[in-house]
Predict the structure.
Amino acid sequence: MSRPPSSGATSARARQLRLALAVVVAVLLPLTSRLFGNGSLAFTMFSRSETYRLHVVTADAAGTARRVAPTALAAAVGGTPGDILAGTEQWRHGPFAGLLADHLGEVARFACQLGPGTARADVTLERRQTLDAPVEAVAASARCP
Amino acid sequence: MLVVNDAAVTPPSSVVFPDPPFISCDDSAADGGGCDFAPSVCNLHACDDAGACTPTQWIKAYANPRCVAGQCVWDPAYYNCQDLCVDGRCFYNGTTLP
């Protein structure tokens, strides 16, 4: 017959269990989600703001280009993505430049749906870390179905 | 995934915006006058007689810039922020990226 564990041993085992649980929840799950999934189990704190603006240009089959105000895109998208897009015709300061850069292709594909006859959409995100830093541009394009 | 919302966004008549900027241009120039998007603005505070004001939530952007009779003109594009409109953009009061 085995002896019941002492309260000290139980306490040590509980500490180890809590530590293991913390490592799984706080480290392994977010890391695995970030590396192998879509990152939905990992969250990003606001750690950096920068200035950014968005250029959206659509073209019809004949190649006639038309500049689209990002706020017009925002109105059609709505919700939190719309809040992020609205007003980015001009330089804005905030934490969303990285998020926009990650989803720029999706924004371009969405711009295809704004007007009938749109054959192509080009989206350029300009961002700068500080007010006097060089402008970095990220671009995405979509051929419209 | 972004989802298209076909409904046109128009603010109610009680929502008032500042006057659009006055920018001169040359409509005979090769670049069409060089008109650009003007900075977006928030709607003006609406206050009642008791001094209670409604928060600003609407954005007005100036789309489709062009030069007409020596003056830049735009088509309005409106957006209703989920929270407040501050300095022509939506204010996001969160600590993590959405």
